[in-house]
Structure formats: C-alpha cells, structure tokens
Amino acid sequence: MLLLIEQLLNGLQSGLMLFLMAAGLTLVFGVMGLINLAHGSLYMVGAFACAGVAAATGSFWLGLAASIAAAAAAGAIVEVAVIRRLYARDHLDQVLATFALILIISEGTRWLYGSFPLYLNVPPSLSGSVILPGGIQYSLFRLAIIGVGLLVAVGLFLLIGKTRIGVQVRAGEADREMIAALGVDIGRLYTLVFALGAALAGMAGALVGTIQSVQVGMGEPVLILAFVVIVIGGIGSIKGALIGALLVGLTDTMGRVLLPSVFDLFMETSAATSMGAALASMAIYILMALVLLVKPGGLFGARA
Amino acid sequence: MTRYLTTTALALSMIGTAAMAEPVKVGMITTLSGGGASLGIDTRDGFMLAVEEAGNPELEVVIEDDQQKPEVAVQLSDKMIQSENADVLTGIVWSNLAMAVVPGATRQGKFYLSTNAAPSQLAGKGCHENYFSVSYQNDNLHEAAGQYATDEGYARTFIMAPNYPAGQDSLSGFKRFYEGEVASEVYTQLGQTDYAAEIAQIRDSGADALFFFLPGGMGISFMKQWAEAGIDMPVVGPAFSFSQDILPAIGEAAVGVKNTAQWSPDLDNEANKAFVAGFEEKYDRLPSLYAAQGYDTARLLLSAMETADVSDSDAFREAIRAAEFDSVRGDFAFGPNQHPVQDIYVREVISEDGTLTNRIVATAMEDRGDAYAEECSM
C-alpha cells in the first residue's frame, strides 16, 4: 500500500514536469497556430545552461535562474529570427523549419559543450530523502519538483485568467485578426508567449536534468510525450495540458509498476515482465487513442 | 617533409621492393552525432591514435557518421563498399546497427572487425569467416557480473535491463553464471530516464544486491536517482554505465560501484601504459573502454598488414586470426568463432585527485570465450 502511494507520488511528479513542457507547447499552438518541434531543444538549452552555470559558479540556484533566462532568450531570438515568418505558412512548412532548428540547436550545443554528457547534481540543501506522514521515504528534490510544478500551474492559471496579458492571449486564440485590429501589438504578444513557453521548458529541462542526464538529444523523447499530453488535453487549453500531463504521468508510472505483476498472475515470470514492460510502454498511446475515440478534440479542446 | 617521405615510401612500394605493402582501405562507420556520440567519438579517437602512432602510409581510413540509425549505417556501408572500395569495415557501436550492416558486408567478401557491438546472432549460427569481434561477445560482461555476484555470495539479486534484445541478452547472461536467487526481474523502457518507480520496487523487494545494465544516458539518470534514494545495497553491472565517457556526468554517486570489463586504465602491461599516456596527451582526457577497443582493433589490423596482403583474403584472414599484436588487455586470442578469449575483470569506481576512474579489484573470469561458439560452424 505504501509502495502504491509512493508510486502515485512518482506519477504526479513526472506528470507535473510534463505539464511544464506541454504548457508552452499548447499555448504556442493555441495562440499562434504553430507546431513547434524545437520545443524539446529549448528544454535541452535550459538543462545545459543550468549545468554550465552551476559548474562555473558552484551554485545550483544560479544555474536554475540561468536556465530560465537562457531558454527564454533562446525562445525570443528563435521567434524573431525564424518562427515569425512561419505563422502564415501551413503546418508542413512549420514542421520542416522547426525540425531544422532541432538539428541546428543540437549541433550548436555540441559545438559549445562537447559530445560528452555534463555533470549536474541535486543541490545539498535538497538532497537526500524525507519521511512523509505514513512512513513513506521520498526524495526531497522530487517533492520540491512537485511543489514547483503546482506553483507554476497556479501561476499560469492566474496569468491567463486574471491579467491583461491573459485576456490578450485568450483573445488571440479566439480571433487573431480581430485582436490586431483592436490595436494590440500582436507581434510583441507572440514573442512574449513564445518566450514564456520557452522559459517553462528551460526550467523543466534544468529540474529534470538534475536527476537525469544532461546530454545532446535529451529533449526529443520529452517532446513526443508533451505532444501526447496536449492531444489528450485538447490543443490550446492550459487546463487540458495539466489534466493531460497528470494522466500521462500516472498512466506511465502505474503501468510500468502494475502491468508486469498483472501478467505474472497467469504467465511465467520472465515472460510476464517482458510482456508487461512492452505493454506499459504502449499504455499512454492506448490512453490517447481512447480519449480521441470519445472526444476527438481532446478532453478540453475548444475546436472539437 | 613528412609528406615527402610518405610519397617516397609510396613510390618505393610501387616499385615492388616491399612485397607486403599493399594499401588497405578502412571504412569506419560510427556514431558521431546525437545522444550516443560520445561512444563513437571515443572509438574513433582510440582507433586513430593507433593509426597515427604506427604511421603506416599504406593504411587509409575513411570515417562516416551513422547517427545511430540502422538505415543510415546500411547506406554508408554500401557507399564504403561500392564507391570507396574499402577492404575492411569497422566502428559500429550498436548491436542493431551491426545486425543491419555486418551480414551484407561479409557476404560481399569484405572484412568486418567489430570495435564494440557483438550480438549473439553473429557469434553463433550467423558467424562468418570474415567477421571478427575484437571487443567481446555481448553477453561476456554480464556473465562476469553474474559470476562476481556468485563469488560475493549475494543471495537475492534484483536484476534490471531495458526491454530490447541486448537487454534480454544481458539478463540471461547474468543468470547463466549467477547461483543465487533472482529477487525480481524488471525490464525498463529503452531510453527511459526516470527510474523512481523502479527504485521504489528495488527498495521494497528485500533484495541484498542490485545488478543493472543501462547503457549511456539511461545509466547516468539511474545512478543519480539511486544515490538520491540512499539505499544501502551493493551494486554491480557491466562497464557500460561506468565507462570513462560518462563517469564525470554521474559524479560522486558512482564511487564504490563494482563493474565488469575486459579492460581497465590501470591494467598493468606495457601496451596499456603507453596507450593511456598517449591518449591523455593527444586528447587531454582519460580513455574509455570504447577507446581501448578502437585502439586494439587498429593495432590488430596493422599487425595483419605486416604479414599478409589484403588482396589475398585467406592469408589476410589467417593473419588477423593469429592476433599477433600487443593488446592493451594483455593476453588476447580469438576463439573458434573469432570472438575473443580473454580475462574479464571486476573494477571499482574510485575518485583519484578529484577525477573519477576505474581500478581493478578482482578477476571475475579467466580465459572466457562465449556461450555461442558451439553453434558456429566455420
């Protein structure tokens, strides 16, 4: 039972990190109608900036700040230099151009940092584990990630729901031409939204890179998951991204843990673990297919 | 000046005074971009170090990047064979790429010397007289880890690997020599980076030791998260997760872990000392297992060129099979299926003046061949 609760926490934590990635992706897609494959590269930029600055200064926190700044800056530059020209084009052109960006950013990172994975570790103040009520031993850093994820979620809801910028973003989603005609500087709004999404991705990269590996190409697997999340949640919806991310995080974690033991009930152990693991890796895509079957526009999709 | 000398040497050889000096063209296909690039770069650098040290003008090397994609590797091998006219192919890091390239290349009469990947299929029924593995057979390091776990008296071991052919081979290799009980057997996803769920299972399993095979970035992620979890349990695995290319990224979390390999930077023989010093001087970093394998492969090839012409395939094959070179591993010989028969060591990760590296603490297996040699009819 305790193990089950610990696994639920693990699912929650991986879901919240996915949310940081998916939030930016869904905003950019919702507001600007742009498919941005290079979102995973911004995640990588964040992780490398954090590792680089943490190694140079010895401070993880400076590294974390640098990751947000570097990813936001990279996002803004990319938006102004490349993405801006793509809004009016069709999705195929956008996919091609942003795929080129993946290659350019990856090889650029390799050129700057070399081909070997970088060192980045949990800061001493957050290392080790704590005993939660009920006697569960859980990693302090992962708890902190859960906390950060929840804070960002609340912050984003307030930003989109309660502020002037949020109103403009929502208006932009509904009718791009009209909001431009009303005198909102749509170009600046787009750059801002893009940089915000990039900053969230960069922060996720730094936080996840701390407990995983910081290396070239780390962003692409996460990008695929983030796309699954926004398809499940409904494109353009922050609420959908949150629910979708939690669903994907929990399904993935619980699938990995539970499926092999389910198969173990009626199969030989070795085959059961192999079969269970194989099915677990499909679980989130099965979930996506089921959601699309019932709600073709995603759970909270505006354009069903 | 050197260029002038080289030309002179070439001219002399054309006159025919040096009977054994027929040019050999090597096509190296390895991973130089993407997430797995560090392995290919070390393979290349080790190989080229030996080539430069030898300074043999008859050896020409063409290097291409396979991007860790089987289809790219196949295209490159076609290009190497058809337009470059390479005599020998080498360099592939990954078993799935080797499976895509090696059978075709050997069928066309080319030699393939493996610097790393050595899947069971190519060691058993699919063995070929033109295919040599200079590194090991894929199962070897896992078998040695199983033997070590037995020697240490671990009673219940938790074993874990990614769910793909090399991962399944890994766990069966471990179990082949492990006499204790397997506490639990877990397959993770290939490329998985979060192991919180598995670590919770390990803690809950009541095992007294952990064996895992997670190459590259997967191993970095796992070891960092394992250290965070603070579980007091001996860990053993093959060298891939503790090789010099990724040790700095894991950091102190790796110190004390036992890992198995057929080579180590502190292995005490003249060839190895010269190799480690030469590599450090040229590239300003410590060599990894992949670099050592690349270096040995080049030296094997150079030794064969001393005694035979590549145009005489049978003689050249015999010359490679004789393995008349000073391996950085000390003793080195080929078994009947042209895979190495060699000692496999247990290494421990240590921190030496702030640099993480490996040091040998025991010998797990002596003169180990492989489990598939009997299936090979050659």
UniProtKB/TrEMBL annotation, chain B:
CDD domains given in the database record: PBP1_Nba-like (cd06359)
GO BP annotations listed: amino acid transport
Domain Leucine-binding protein: from-to ranges: 23-350
Signal sequence segment: 1-21
Pfam families noted in UniProt: Peripla_BP_6 (PF13458)
Swiss-Prot/TrEMBL keywords: Amino-acid transport, Signal, Transport
Domain of life: Bacteria
Entry similarity comment: Belongs to the leucine-binding protein family.
Name of the protein in question: Branched-chain amino acid ABC transporter, amino acid-binding protein
Lineage of the organism: Bacteria, Pseudomonadati, Pseudomonadota, Alphaproteobacteria, Rhodobacterales
